[in-house]
Amino acid sequence: MTATAPTREVPPAVPGSDIALGLTLYSLTSEWAAGRYDLAGLLDVVDAAGIGPGIEIVASQTIRTYPDVTPEFVRAWRDAFDRHGFVPSSFGCNLDMGRRRDRDMTPEEEYEFTVTQFRSAHALGFPLVRIQSAAPELIRRLLPVAEELDLTMGWELHAPLGPNSPKVMEIRETYAEIDSPRLGFVADFSSTMHAMSPTILRKLARMGLEAQDLEKLQEIWATDADINARHGAFVQYLHTRGIAPESLGSFARLAFNMHGHVDPAEWSDIMPQIKHVHAKFYDIDEHGDEPAIDYPAIVREFVRGGYRGFFSSEWEGHAFADLDEADPVALVRAQHDLIRRSITDALAQEG
Amino acid sequence: MATGDTVLTDDSLIRRPDGLGIALTVPWYRSLWLSSVSSVAVRVAGREIPTADLRVELGDRVFTVDELPEQWDVLWFIQDRLVVVVPMDEPPAAGEQLDVEATVDLRLPYMQIAPMTYVTNHATSRRALAAR
Fold first, then answer.
1. In whole angstroms, what is the distance from residue B127 CA to residue A131 CA?
2. Which of A66, A98, A104 minimises the CB distance to B31?
3. How far apart are alpha carbons B79 and B73 in whole angstroms?
4. Which residues in chain A land under pLDDT 70?
5. Residues of B engaging A, defined by a Cβ cutoff of 8 Å
6. Residue-wise pLDDT tens digits, B113-123
7. Binary contact (A29, B29; C-beta < 8 A)
8. What is d(CA A94, CA A58) in angstroms, rounded to the nearest whole number?
9. Which residues of A touch B115 (CB under 8 A)?
10. N or C: which end of chain B has fewer CB within 10 A?
11. Could you give phi then psi for residue B78, rounded to 5 degrees?
């Protein structure tokens, strides 16, 4: 592969801030899946809307030859990035351990499959790979490859977990043992929501839940029981109401899986290890706020903690909303305004 | 329909010389190996089509439904359609409306719960669509 191009200057979200903006193309999943755009067309839309410059991908969504990239793809990608002045932010790896039906991947196959994606990420100019497994043996084996390719590895910390959940504490211990600056976290704001998103409540209402059912759901969601216990309690409630849980598809469980209610202050416990941010959101209301995620409070933690890096906008409403029910591009633009406003306020408070 | 439950789209029905092609969208946010497709079932005008009668096309490759779990090296790219071909004695006329239901069961290969056990997704769409 050719040498990586010199890193482009990334403008801050607001002057004096260490936070830069951008988005993950995952925000436009519905339009992408529907075939509305090819990659060049999608990047044109992002540029026209001014919602870059940081571009993140889920490799298994964006790359036809996943987990590899072809020289033609790399060339077209780099041309588009030069044309638009975009900056690659995070390459989302997947670990398809269950690719075969007769057995799971061997440790050797897990390593090889991941290394292939690391090489693809490097070829496309990414500085960071989002990883899904932080198994100590795998991490230790991958580290020299990350060093060779100048990549940082970020394990995605997502709802229902938070920075101090037992599983995350284990990873933090592994990181402490290995002690490499190339290891860290991708912080996803789904962990720190103060309410369920109106988008999923709307979807569940459309699927037949009444106001009292949605109230009960939110009541159970707000408790501290683990995800299985909360899901179980809700299923039990549905039975008492004569509602078949199956009638809600996977959405009743997703509600607990995709929305966590950890205190935003906990991000500060791992701030130096946060290498990238998924600025998750579902909606922006008429006041310019995200109705279920307290952006001003979260941004304050990141500004105070000295976070340097991208806030990569991740609109996930497409998991619950139909194609064309919402305009992800307009929503990301409105969310960027919210983030800028929150950073400005936080800087003023700090100053 | 949202990311996880979109199977049929407005232009899903395709007339074929020997029957009907039903173009399916992967009901997930990413591309998946064909081995992730645990089953495909279709009903046309209320009639369940026997699985053995179905052929599944991805580009120029053709499989039976039973062969899908072995295709761990074939990627169903999210922008490509998996065309299920239903044999019919009398193929539909252009513009003819048909009541079609398609069900896809997925095993998500990167979401392991326990060894050999993965999160699944069950997606069904039923729509009246015009054959093109």
1. 38
2. A66
3. 17
4. 1-7
5. 1-6, 9, 25-26, 29-33, 35-36, 69-70, 72, 75, 77-79, 107-110, 112, 115-116, 118, 121-123
6. 899 999 899 99
7. yes
8. 8
9. 104
10. C
11. -60, -25
**Residue A76 near residue A33 (C-beta atoms within 8 A):** no
Tell me the pLDDT tens digit for each residue of A256-279.
889 999 999 999 999 999 999 999
CA distance B103 to B123: 6
Inter-residue long-range contacts of B112-115, CB under 8 Å, 24+ positions, other chains counted: B112/A97, B112/A98, B112/A104, B115/A104
Residue type, A252: A
As given in the structure block, the two tokens for residue B30 are 């990413």
Q: Name the superfamily (CATH) of residues A19-196+259-350.
A: Divalent-metal-dependent TIM barrel enzymes (3.20.20.150)
Side chain identity at residue A270, one-letter code? I
Residue B43, exposed/middle/buried by CB under 10 A (0-12, 13-18, 19+)? middle
Tens of pLDDT, residue by residue over A24-39, are 999 999 999 999 999 9
Domains in chain A: boundaries: 19-196+259-350, 198-254
Query: A257 is written with which tokens?
Result: 């899986």
Residue B72 has its nearest CB partner, among A34, A66, A99, at A99
Contacts of A321 in chain B (CB under 8 A): 2
Shortest CA distance to A161 belongs to which of A171, A176, A175, A173? A171
Is residue A303 classed exposed, middle or buried when 0-12, 13-18 and 19+ CB atoms within 10 A define those classes?
buried
DSSP code per residue over B29-87: SS-EEGGGEEEEEEEETTEEPPGGG-EEEETTEEE-GGGGGG-TT-EE-TTS-EEEEEE
Q: Which amino acid is at A200?
A: I
Distance CA A159, CA A197 (A): 13
Question: Known catalytic residue: A194?
Answer: no
Mutation target to probe the B interface, by most B beta carbons within 10 A, among A38, A70, A96 is: A96
Residues B3-32 have pLDDT tens digits of 778 999 999 999 999 899 999 999 999 999
The first and second tokens of residue A148, run together, are 């060779």
Distance CA A57, CA A50 (A): 17
Contacts of B82 (CB under 8 A, 6+ apart): B23, B24, B26, B37, B40, B56, B57, B58, B76
pTM of the prediction? 0.96
**Residue whose C-alpha is closest to residue A51's, from A286, A308, A314:** A314
As for the ipTM of the complex, it is 0.96
Residue type, B58: L
